[in-house]
Amino acid sequence: MSGLANQLESYPWHRALWTSLTRDRTGLVHALLLNGQLGLGKSTFATQLSTMLLCENPNQHSHACGSCKSCRLVSAGTHPDLKRVEPVEEGRVITVDQTRALVEFMTMRPHIAQRKVVILTPAESMNINAANSLLKILEEPPLGNIFILVSHQPAKLPATIRSRCSQIEFKLPPRHDGIDWLQTQKVSVADAAVLLGLAGGAPLRALEMDQTGVIGQREQLLVDLEALRAGTADVVACAARWQKIGAEFSLAWLQRLVADMVKIDMIPQPESFLANHDLACRLQVLGEGLDLKQLYGFADAVSQARDLLASPVDNLLLLEDILIRWFRVPRKITLPTE
Ligand SMILES: [Zn+2]
After folding, report:
1. Which residues have beta carbons under 5 A from ligand 1 (an ion)?
2. 3-state secondary structure (DSSP) of residue 278
3. How much is the mean pLDDT over the chain?
4. pLDDT value at position 141?
5. For the residues of 113-174, what is the DSSP string, one character each?
6. Complex ipTM above 0.90?
7. pLDDT of 251-306, one tens digit each?
8. Ligand 1 centroid from CA 59, angstroms
9. Given this model, what pLDDT does residue 268 score?
10. How far apart are CA 216 and CA 241, in angstroms?
11. What CATH number should be reported for the domain whose range is 214-328?
12. Do the two domains 3-169 and 214-328 of this chain adopt the same fold?
């Protein structure tokens, strides 16, 4: 079995979808739109599906054999009948030149397989010209060829593209399944539950957070926020630490922590609404007594600071400014009772 096939086996939440989609290999529609939130393994699924569609000898469970010439070429990234289209740089658009090249690719006869397959990901990064150039061939693709579009935000796709595809929705696995799977990836039970919550229930996103040490970094941010309010930490030293962790990362998490403090103040039983529900007690203590309106104002300032990160601004000064503002968020004024 190939490494790719093994990878699919490790995502148990794909199994039902895989079985229903691959029951009849010849009956697959010509354009699929795999959609669902980030961190569910849609791209891996798309690669697996294309490998199976090109495989000369798929097994009885409709998995690629992993050893035929086609499978070996896909694994090496050199299959002449498979094209993967994505932005040249992360966060950039898929251009009209890229989609024109793929239209040309699709209109030529297959080299060694029965069909050609295109994976386009993330589809919402096509600009409008790119999407338009794809429309016609998506409507009338050369017989047998298959488009696999992957989208984390399908609502951002033109309706004309969506309507030409069969939509395959990836849902979040049940929480206990996500936790079980994370444990098979050597994540502790306690961390798995926290990470899955922070990742919005998406197991691969949670695993990535584990591998990048998110829990430890978040802890450092919270410790600094607590110490600043207690007057036992220095703004300059904290800002330097936050910059080392990453200005964008730090401000994004600060936003979530502050949002949770606001929720704790406003909602009677806030636990299920909190992004950081494992920190509910500490956040309650930290936010207790702070003026809610001023806390909102601080949250706005953090949001504006995040926007400023895209401009040529001194991140360290920006972080220092935000932390000074945090230190100065006033407490509620309580009138003395007589
Ligand atoms: Zn094969």
Report:
1. 55, 64-65, 68, 71
2. helix
3. 91
4. 78
5. SSS-EEEESSGGGB-HHHHHHHHHHHHSPPTT-EEEEEES-GGGS-HHHHHTSEEEEPPPPP
6. yes
7. 999 999 999 999 999 998 888 889 898 999 999 999 999 999 999 999 999 999 99
8. 9
9. 87
10. 13
11. 1.20.272.10
12. no
Report the pLDDT averaged over residues 30-53.
94
146 in Cβ contact with 21 (< 8 Å): no
3-state secondary structure of 33: strand
| pLDDT per residue as tens digits for the range 211-266 | 999 999 999 999 999 999 999 999 999 999 999 999 999 999 999 999 999 999 99
Question: Which superfamily, per CATH, for 3-169?
Answer: P-loop containing nucleotide triphosphate hydrolases (3.40.50.300)
Tell the residue number behind the tokens 């600060």, with chain if given: 254
**Cα of 27 from ligand 1 centre, angstroms:** 19
Compute, in angstroms, the gap from residue 18 CA to the centroid of ligand 1: 17
Domain ranges of the chain: 3-169, 175-211, 214-328
Q: Which two tokens stand for residue 237?
A: 């030293």
How does DSSP classify residue 331? B
DSSP state of 39: T
Q: What are 210's two structure tokens?
A: 């584990």
Centroid of ligand 1 to alpha carbon of 70 (angstroms):
6
